[in-house]
Structure formats: C-alpha cells, structure tokens
Amino acid sequence: MTIPTLEPERKYTYQDYLKWPEEERYELINGVPYAMSPAPSRKHQEVTGELFAEFRNYLRNKDCRAYPAPFDVRLFAENKEDDQVINVIQPDITVVCDKDKLDERGCKGTPDLIVEVLSPATGKQDRWLKYKLYERAGVKEYWIVDPMNELVDVFVLNESGKYELIGSYGKDDTVKVGIFDDLTIELNIIFRQ
C-alpha cells in the first residue's frame, strides 16, 4: 500500500496521516506532507544514538522523558481532534517534561527540547521549516546537529518567543543543556570515530 496521490492545494491532517503506510514515513508541517529520509546514514544513526543515550541516562528516575524517532509529536494539538491537527513531526530526539502531553501515540503538545540530526535530504527542512515551526510552537530548546561537520547549533527561546543562537559547538566542546541545571554533554563522545 502506498500513500495516495497528494493534492497540492489540500491541507492534510493527523487523521489522514494515520491511514498512510508505516513504511513510508512522512511529517506534516502546516498540513503539507514532507517525505522523511528513507534510510539515514550510519553516522547519522551513531550520532543520534549517542545523544539519545546521554539524555536517557540523565533522565533516568526523573520526571522528564526522552524519545528517539519514530515518535509522533503533534504540535498545536491540545484540545483538538485528529482531523484538526496539521503539524505532526518525528524529531530525531524529543524531550518531554509534562506527562499530561504524552499518550500512546506520542506527544500531543509542545515538547521541552527537540534535537534534529541533519541528513542531506532533510537539512533545509530542519534549518528553516522546522526551526520556524518549533519557534512558533514554543519549544524551549532546539538543537541542530550536523554529523558530517561535527557541529551542534543550540537555540533557546527568549522572552519574546524567538530563538537565540546560544552557541555553535564543535567536536572538542562541551554543551550545557539549557533546560536542565546539571546536564552537560561532551561532544567528543557524540562524534567519536
């Protein structure tokens, strides 16, 4: 089964999304479907795995939770039915601290932190479309990780609701996670060969 032919003028919803085959992964941004990379590179998976391990280990026995992709995040979905939700994304890593936003299908609402690990097919979406979407949704902290150049850009939502670049970090740097007082991540572990 394949996704039906998409109609360019139509806005799709989470209800539509749920009917599409799982082997063909899409995200919805403002009702527009975007195909996800079919097979991330080995380096992409290694970097994602190492970062997820750091978050998972830190959050053990704490209220917040970290989830790796695939994990549906339905933005602007509070108090809405599936046929009203037009933003469904699958970040590489999602951190949620409000358990009321979690259900059996993922996160319904705004996560606290999102990490996107770039791939050639999705880099533009991560750097622009998702950046603007996450900023508008109020995601407190957004990391864009470039596995090929071994860089991490960290954006934090300021008081006016706009992202500020807190820093660009390389392989030899340590990054403090802004939403937690005592979590730092050494990038030489994340980007190890």
TrEMBL record:
CDD domains: DUF820-like (cd06260). Residues 15-180 form the Putative restriction endonuclease domain. InterPro entries: Nuclease_put_TT1808, Restrct_endonuc-II-like, Uma2. It comes from the Bacteria. SUPFAM superfamilies: Restriction endonuclease-like (SSF52980). This is Putative restriction endonuclease domain-containing protein. It comes from Collibacillus ludicampi.
